[in-house]
Amino acid sequence: MTEQIDWNDEVARIRDLRASRARVGPGSRPAVVVVDFQKAFTEHEHIGPGTAVALAHTAELLRAARAAGVPVIYLVMILDSLDDRMLAQRVRSSLTERCERGDPWTDISPAVAPEPSDHIVEKTVASGFYNTRLHDLLQELGVDEVVMTGTSTSGCVRATVVDAAYRDYRVSIVEECCDDFRALSGEVSLWDMQDRFGDVVSKRWMLDRLASIAADREQEAVAR
């Protein structure tokens, strides 16, 4: 008889593993990437209370990033035709059905509204790097680290993290600023990303880091 897995124990185990896993470490020139915090993915019928919490945490992080002069980049799912979607999403029902250009569902959530100085990159699949200008933009900005926020943790966030790691960016995933209405998938993906691709960090740690960057920037301005 196959031994039954206690999933509560398994989640506790991977959280312990995630906390003890060796860190890659941050870069020196970060950018904050906001993945798919659009109405289609933040106001749909399956969201839980965690979505609003993640949006609020992200809004706080974005204010700190802008104050530190750290670039903010929004990834948005925009389709000129629903036929542009990958096969699985054309076959199965998917929230991407609400992502056709001009549909109000594609609007970025007002809880994390972009500022004029921010950058917006359109995409058509989960990864923000696939057939987009994201890599070129990061290179133009001199970025060596992506600070990841957004939804869903197990889908578009993870896909973008994987592709960032493949391009040798340092990756910091801010736990409180990521959302997944598939709770178990989100938890497992945080462990997977910490294990293989980057560092899962707390919002407090990242806010302190951004405050330090802002202070350094202010000192440099005074020195000039």
Structure description:
Pfam families: Isochorismatase (PF00857). Residues 31-202 form the Isochorismatase-like domain. The protein has 224 residues and is an alpha/beta fold. It has a single domain (28-78, 108-223), classed as Isochorismatase-like (Rossmann fold, 3-Layer(aba) Sandwich). It has eight helices and six strands; from the N terminus they run H-E-H-H-E-H-E-H-E-H-E-H-E-H. The chain has helices at residues 7-20, 39-42, 49-67, 87-91, 134-141, 153-166, 183-196, 203-223, and strands spanning 30-35, 72-77, 119-123, 145-151, 170-179, 199-201. Strands 3-2-1-4-5-6 form a six-stranded parallel β-sheet. Strand 5, helix 7 (183-196) and strand 6 (199-201) form a beta-alpha-beta unit.
Q: Would you summarize the structure shown here?
A:
The chain has 224 residues and is an alpha/beta fold. The chain has helices at residues 7-20, 39-42, 49-67, 87-91, 134-141, 153-166, 183-196, 203-223; strands spanning 30-35, 72-77, 119-123, 145-151, 170-179, 199-201.
